[in-house]
Specification:
Blueprint (H helix, E strand, L loop, with lengths): L2 H25 L3 E2 L1 H8 L3 H14 L2 E3 L6 E3 L2 H13 L1 H16 L2 E8 L2 E8 L14 E3 L4 H10 L1 H8 L15 H14 L2 E4 L6 E7 L9 E8 L5 H25 L1
Antiparallel strand pairs: 1-3, 2-3, 4-5, 4-9, 5-6, 7-8, 8-9
Helix pairs in contact: 2-3, 5-9, 6-8
């Protein structure tokens, strides 16, 4: 009489583990081995093999025939379209982001906030040879990225503190803010100046500026950014990029209001 509940519990557990495997490709990298997945999730290798085989069969994962490394499969793309349609903002922002990347030559992204992480929804790479590389679905910590700080500032200190927790936060570089008190000062500055900056706080040699989009409280918060190598982030270049970001954010926000 207890067989069915046990089977149900097992099915839910397998589903949860399968989802955790898929999420790893957003946080750990675009391709992973079974051993890397097993280590990251603290699961036995045979369990990972069984789950991965199922995800491959369903099309949510695919395996490189040479390296045997796993990547997200095409079935994920079928889910991405309805997600983007539901959020509406990515499609309305597409042309404006592409134009900004073309004009500046730098990498431009649109992202939202999911817990303590930033999730990349769309990105365009500029024409410069040395530029930041991002991908849709990429997850980065919010506390040390310009996108993250702009989004945290937008949701307010109470929500931001709840999402991040009390700290200390992971230190990515010597410049990373690792306490709530340090980060709160940054968030106040973001609200005052209208943009966020990450000056080698996530990675040495990488600078980023971000501006949150004004939107309804019942929708996920959104922000856009420009990332570039620190050697190009001169004071004059910063002023130009921030001004263009703010202009682009205003245009996208106006488009969202019209669409609503």
């Amino acid at each position: 009489m207890t067989t069915e509940p046990r089977r149900a519990d097992g099915g839910v557990r397998a589903l949860a583990r399968g989802i955790e495997i898929l999420k790893l490709f957003g946080s750990r990298g675009p391709d992973l081995t079974q051993s890397e997945i097993a280590e990251a999730l603290a699961l036995p290798l045979p369990t990972v093999h069984r789950l991965v085989t199922t995800l491959e069969r369903l099309g949510f994962l695919t395996r490189d025939p040479r390296s045997r490394r796993l990547r997200l499969g095409l079935e994920i793309l079928k889910l991405l379209g309805p997600l983007m349609d539901g959020m509406q903002a990515p499609e309305l922002a597409r042309d404006h982001l592409r134009a900004l990347a073309y004009e500046t030559g730098e990498t431009v992204n649109l992202a939202t906030l999911d817990g303590s992480e930033v999730v990349y929804l769309m990105g365009y790479t500029g024409e410069r040879l040395l530029t930041a590389q991002t991908s849709v679905g990429l997850r980065l910590p919010a506390h040390c990225t310009a996108l993250g700080k702009s989004l945290l500032a937008a949701v307010g200190d109470e929500v931001a503190a709840r999402l991040l927790g009390p700290g200390p936060y992971p230190r990515r570089t010597p410049r990373t803010r690792v306490t709530w008190a340090q980060l709160q000062e940054d968030l106040e500055r973001v609200r005052r100046e209208g943009y966020a900056a990450s000056d080698e706080e996530f990675e040495i040699g990488l600078v980023s500026f971000a501006v949150a989009l004004a939107g309804p409280a019942d929708r996920p918060p959104l922000a856009i950014n420009v990332s570039l190598p620190s050697m190009r982030a001169t004071e004059s270049e910063r002023e130009v990029l921030v001004a263009r970001l703010q202009e682009t954010a205003d245009v996208i926000t106006a488009s969202l209001r019209l669409a609503a």
